Amino acid sequence: MTARWESAKAARGQLDGLMRGIEERSVEHGGKLEGLDYSLKGLDSFRRKAAVAVERPGVDAESVCEDVDDLNRYTLTFDTDNYVQGTQRTYAELRERGFEPVSEQNTWEDPVYKGVNTAWEHPGTKEKFELQFHTPESFKAKSENHELYELARSGEFEKYNTKEDPTRAVSYQEASDLLQNERYENVRTPSGVEELGNRKVRATLNPEVEPEIVEHVRQMETDLKTLHAAEAAAKAQEQANSLDTGLGETLQSEGPGLRNRLATKTEPRQQSRTTAPVVDPLPSQSRGRGPALM
């Protein structure tokens, strides 16, 4: 498992460069890379994903590790009106570079996740990565729904099953679907999107879910968002403390010499006592910028 992750880590720099180039060449379609700092899935996250997968009957860890295609992952957004053209152009460019799509899911008709998710592999190098295509609005909705997705993926809803109601987790998932759908209500579907990939609907909304369960899931989401915010703040503080510690150690080891260097000053040059002749100022004039350069 670690070897598979190290391989993805080694490929990250080249793949990041590939995607930056695609972004630069897709500016005319509003192309923009999102979340490039997270283009490599964390090792702990990879281990958790594999652990969940191997719990299924007949699944072994080695095959799971080989099948995972989102260790390197990217998100490209296009303006809604240019979404289909921008996506098709990206497909063409990746194929020109030897990559082929090994997975395609067009879920723009799905009520809880709208976008096109693809996975690509290079037959020669065996490099593989995930690439999601979104509009800015669908990416925003997806990001806001992250905690609901995490709750479902982690199996958190399963603990609400009881002997009397062994499938109660289904109601919790349906409540999560309703909440996720709320954030897609104002997301416009790009024209011609049905031309992209394999169309798939993964969820069906159930408006009859108990309101109490919906509110419970909403509170669970709020609590998880609060936890994530606290973790992010703690990480930022840890990084700041690390920088302060490093600076302190530098001053301690190089302090005397550094202070001496800062204290050393060159003598200021003597200013010329010659008085410059007085020149009458020109009348104020407007400054035209001329025609814009193309």
Structure notes:
The C terminus is likely disordered. It is built from 8 helices and 5 strands. With 294 residues, the chain is α+β, with helices and mostly antiparallel strands. The chain has a 5-stranded mixed beta sheet with strand order 1-2-5-4-3. It starts with a helix and ends in a 31-residue tail after the last helix. Helix 7 packs across helix 8. Helices cover 48% and strands 10% of the residues. The protein is globular and about 75 Å long. A hairpin with a 6-residue loop joins strand 4 and strand 5.
What's the quick description here?
The chain is built from eight helices and five strands. With 294 residues, it is α+β, with helices and mostly antiparallel strands.
N-to-C CA distance: 52 Å
Radius of gyration equals: 28 Å
Share of β-strand residues: 5-15%
Summarize model confidence as the mean pLDDT: 85
Helix content: 40-55%
Number of distinct beta strands: 5
User: What order do the SSEs take from the amino end to the carboxyl end, as H and E?
Assistant: HEHHEHEEEHHHH
What is the SS-derived class?
alpha+beta
Low-pLDDT sequence parts:
271-294
* Molecular shape: globular
Order of strands in the sheet with most strands: 1-2-5-4-3
**Count of helical regions:** 8
Largest sheet: 5 strands, mixed
